[in-house]
Amino acid sequence: MQDEANDPLTPEQLFLTAVDDALESRRINKVDKLIRQAAFPISGATVAEVDYRDGRRITPVRMRRYAAHDWRSDVTNLLIISPTGGGKTYLACALAIGACHSEHSILYFRMDDLTEGPSSPAATASPTRSC
CA within 20 to 30 Å of 120's CA: 20, 23, 61, 98, which one? Predict the structure, then answer.
């Protein structure tokens, strides 16, 4: 039998917990939507799973710094250069998904999409603002 006298949360605490849960659920839905809209080729890429072997010149500190970067207030281009099979797509997806988790809108394009000219989808696309 449950009665209110044995409930550890006050009504105010219960209400605030419900509001926090609803806000977190909305944030998760927003992040999921941003990731879906970007149409990443590797939608499960994460900075935590990047291969940091010697010779790749990628450090966990650098990747965490890029993942935590506030791209909206400090607009910065990031160019990833590597031979075929070097993991450029994975790195780009991992960083972009990190940006989505910070609620930034992302447009994902391959370089060949950008070089197709003014009629390409990449040339006419514009990111949506997410506030």
Answer: 98
